[in-house]
Every structure is written in structure tokens, then in C-alpha cells.
Amino acid sequence: MKWLSVVPLACVLTVAGCHSRSGCDEFDSYNGTIEVTAVDAATGALVPNSTMTLMVAPGDTAVQSVGSDVSEYPADFIGLSAGTYQLSIAAPGYTTWQAKNGVTVLCAIPPATVTARLEKSP
User: Fold this and answer.
1) Rounded CA separation 105/84 (Å)
2) C-alpha span between 80 and 84 (Å, rounded)
3) What pLDDT was estimated at residue 107?
4) Which of 23, 60, 112, 122 ranks highest by number of CB atoms within 10 Å?
5) Global pTM?
6) Which of these, 44, 68, 63, lies nearest to 53 by C-alpha position?
7) Contact present, 95 and 118 (Cβ < 8 Å)
């Protein structure tokens, strides 16, 4: 019966061991997602005809476009590894928006979300 007092300690150590590695190394097939929505900075209205460009690797980009149907928001970049990505959004009549510190995909759910507030171009 003395082994019963060891069982709770063994369970705690086992659970702690599952989370001891940093990052997403333990999830070999982890696929992160970034959900992006572009809104007008003054009105908060969804911005049509936007093009979102995500730098996924040096010299390699992924592009999503939303046409006049703003119900397509949020635009999803899927299948991403954990890390920080540079994101820019362009739309006619607006200054190109860029994520100041990039967008970070973590080993977590829900996905990373970005709401870009686009300023009208002068």
C-alpha cells in the first residue's frame, strides 16, 4: 500500500515532462494558421479588394486576396510552422499596412489573428 503515495507524484512528473520542451518540437505535424482581416482605420468597415502578402521564407511569399465580397474575411494563411512572419496588406485608396513586429505563430490554438487598420492614402 505504500506505492499509492508515489502514484500522484509520478503523474505530476509525467505531465510536467510532456510540456518541458519549448516551442513546437513535440508536434511534428503542427500546422499553424494566421487569420487576417483588413478594416478602414476611420470607419472600421471591412476593406474590399485587399491583397495580403506573408513572407514565409527568405525570397518566398504567400499571397491571399479578398475581392469585393468582404464576407471572405478573415483570409487564412494555413500550414505555417511556429515562428514570426512579416505581413503586409495593400488595397486601392489605402496606404500599404505592415505588421510592425511581424506576426507570431505559436504552438497554440486558436490561430494567430490580425486586424489591420488601413489608413486612407493621401
Assistant:
1) 6
2) 10
3) 74
4) 112
5) 0.73
6) 63
7) yes
Give the ranges where the chain is alpha helix by DSSP (H). 7-18
Name the residue with cell 476611420: 42
**For residue 23, what is its C-alpha cell?**
516551442
Q: Measured between alpha carbons, how far is 76 from 103 in angstroms, rounded to an integer?
A: 13
Residue 75: count other Cβ atoms within 10 Å of its Cβ.
20
Q: Where does 23-118 sit in CATH, by number?
A: 2.60.40.1120
Whether 97 contacts 76, CB under 8 Å: no
C-alpha grid cell, residue 44: 472600421
User: Do residues 64 and 12 make contact, with C-beta atoms less than 8 angstroms apart?
Assistant: no
Residue range 65-99, pLDDT digits in tens: 999 999 999 999 998 988 999 999 999 999 999 99
pLDDT tens for each residue of 13-62: 333 333 334 445 555 445 789 999 999 999 999 999 999 999 998 889 99
